[in-house]
Amino acid sequence: MKNKWISGVSALFLVLLLPFFNWIRVVNLVDLFSRIGVTKDMAKDLLTGYNLYNLLSFVQYANQGVLGLFAMVLLILAVAAIYFNVAFIIRSLLRLKKGKGELSLLSAGKCAFLFQFLTAIATIVFVVFSNVHFKMTGFLPGVPVILSAVISLLAYIYIKVLEKKERDKYREHGLWVELKKNWVLFVMLIPTFVYFMINNYLPMLGVYFAFTSFNFRDGLWSSPFTGFKNFEFLIKADLFRLTKNTVLYNVVFIGVGNVLQILFAILVSRVTVKWFKKTSQTLMFMPYFVSFVILKVIVYNVFEYQYGLINNMVTSFGGERIDFYNNPSYWPFLITFFYLWKNIGYGMVVYLATIMGIDNEIYEAARVDGANDLQQIWYITLPHIKPTFIILLLYALGSIMKGQFELFYQLIGNNGVLFNATDIFDTYVYRITMTQPLSIGLGTAAGLYQSLFGFLIIVLVNYVVKKRNPEYALF
Amino acid sequence: MARDLDYEPSAPKTIKKSTGTRIFEAVAYILLILGSVICVLPFIIIVSGSFTDNATILTKGYSLLPRDFTFSAYQTIFKSPKDILQAYKMNFYYTIVGTGLGLMMITLTGYVISRKEFKYRNTVSFLIYFTSIFGGGMIPWYLMYANVLGLKGSTLAIWFPALMSPFLVILMRTFIVGAVPDAITESAKIDGAGHFTIFCRIVLPVLKPGLATVGLFLALGYWNDWYRSSMFSTNSSTWQLQFYLYDLLNATTAMKQMASNVSMKTADLPTESVKLAMAVVATGPVLLFYPFVQRFFVSGITVGAVKG
């Protein structure tokens, strides 16, 4: 880039973000502390100035839950700003280029400066908000805040000018032009936007509850901030068991499930009698349509102690009744079995669609060359369904930390005897939500851990896949 | 031309099958029959149980074929059908509203992110997919609807959260890309058609398999859901059918335990066969509907990547 020096702004900003610069100063100590009810023993933990990283400790020690979410957002913004600025510096130094000219580099810079600016502005808003909240001037923004707000704004404007020149050169356009050109498409996306905002993106703010200890008096957003206490409790209590159960079940489901689905898809594709082909497909797909409540009825009727089908058969052959519902060791197998029972038909159809797409002439040629059935499957069918398999696998890995909640909850329910072998994150959180309103923090912490862990796994796997063969990558 | 259409590219029947092929086919038939039987068996248990006299179930247990055939379980259900009819009505309401709206939103989104000229198609796809790999978790989600929007007890909270799913959006996009070649939309655009015209006149008419598949997934999800009722319903008149059933089953189990403790009369409880009859009644519509859409369904669930 011609204007390499501009990444120097990023470097300056990173320096300003270092922990020994106070972004927020606490002034009028005596007044402020008396107003927010800080006692002497609390005051000794408090400082007169805070950088972005220890701001939460003020929230915690001064018992000011109201400021918690704000401080959290600030911290997240700061981390994001660091990430984008570091990325920008690296890219402009290494001259990484993708696409047309320097456009991608410039947009990286734009992103970096935007976040830098947002962090500074959010700090100022934080200060204003807390001053208004306590009805006095107790907080002031530090010098670095003003400094980085000004320089990031200037740098942003400058890079915007550069980008415009570059765009004119390559006949590219930005959001505004796109909006004018394709406004119908944007209108079509409005309902979707509203839906995902309400259903997914706004609730993400709620992960803040994971760091609080909820009580009814203070309410959701003002409950005391407790840092990682909930996570510590989880680690001591259930985290290992839940992780192990969730991941192990999913690994078995994915592994055995895919093998059986591929196997049956191949078998169906090799069968020549048409009505048999259709009937077996229909029958094996049927369980997919059964609700989990009905599945509960089925399982109960088959495995019940007194009247259950199996115990009925066992006793008629003179055996002892088996008490399935009080013995955890059977359930991993039963759950796996019923998962497979419900899902094999579905996956089979997905694979079958791929197999049907293979050109018949390839098989003809192989047959002429004397390949037998197994060789045809091994050398033609399997390689052809590999892309489908990898994509399904990646989608499945994306939700490896998410359990089959309905399956587990309906089969096991609140039968505590079986929890050790069958409790997964989703059932655990559901029980907390429904029965212990005071453990909101704990439940959210479990959910957040689950989400982050799963996210890291899929990003990592996708990265590896992309490195080896970009065609198979999910994103 | 007519001859070409009749031509079937299957293997010539005159070639004699080798022994290996015969063995292979035999194994295939056996395995498929086995798989089908296992898949169907539980249905038979339920149906035959629902036609069995309750006293027989209590003395002899469940069986594969109905013993002491009777309609009494179904008669019991439809003697006082008010509750179950209400649950049925609500379930149809949720399914129709949710599937209709959801299908519309998913198709529109699928169309937008399949447009090559739309600069942000990959960004939008990723933002939608992202919701399936990262989220706030169940509790913030619940609080969003119950506290922030105040929808606890409202029917909106039952159908709204399941309108879309990243998987279905991506599935729909794959369908659209496969069904509508770029050349056609390009030429339509040259003729002066806007996006809305292209969507209604060109894309929708050829999208039947996609609409059927995604619609079926949506409808199935709505029909079989019990979970949102358990979270948001405050009044049993808004219950989903499956939750009504679930509640009934739980109540029976709980009552039975109480009854065995304090030796109270269990005559009023739904009997085992009535429970099974309920299960049949609740699943019936889905299984009746399935054969009509199966044709589309099997013809093409192809999964694609998030990026387009």
What does this structure look like?
The complex is a heterodimer of chains A (475) and B (308). Helices cover 70% and strands 2% of the residues of chain A. With 475 residues, chain A is mostly helical. Chain A folds into two domains: 4-172, Butyryl-CoA Dehydrogenase, subunit A, domain 3, CATH 1.20.140; 234-472, Orthogonal Bundle (MetI-like fold), CATH 1.10.3720. Chain A has a three-stranded antiparallel β-sheet. In chain A, α11 crosses α22 (440-468), α13 crosses α16 (331-356) and α21 packs antiparallel against α22. Chain A is flat and about 85 Å long. The model of chain A has no long low-confidence stretch (mean pLDDT 87). In chain B, α5 crosses α9, α5 (82-114) runs antiparallel to α12 (208-224) and α12 (208-224) runs antiparallel to α15. Chain B has helices spanning 2-6, 19-50, 54-60, 72-79, 82-114, 121-133, 138-148, 156-159, 166-179, 182-190, 195-203, 208-224, 227-232, 241-262, 272-299. Chain B has 308 residues and is mostly helical.
C-alpha termini separation of chain B: 36 Å
The CATH topology of the largest domain in chain A is given as MetI-like fold
Compute the separation of the termini of chain A in Å: 28 Å
Count of discrete alpha- or pi-helical segments spanning 4 or more residues of chain B: 15
CATH architecture of the largest domain in chain A: Orthogonal Bundle
Instruction: Domain count of chain A, please report it.
Output: 2
| Rg from Cα of chain B | 25 Å
Shape of chain B: globular
Kindly state the percentage of residues in helix of chain B.
over 70%
Poorly predicted residue ranges of chain A? none
Q: What kind of oligomer do you see?
A: heterodimer
Q: Count the E strands of chain B.
A: 0
Note the main attributes of this structure.
heterodimer; A: 475 residues; mainly alpha; Butyryl-CoA Dehydrogenase, subunit A, domain 3; 2 domains; three-stranded antiparallel β-sheet; 3 strands; B: 308 residues; disordered N terminus
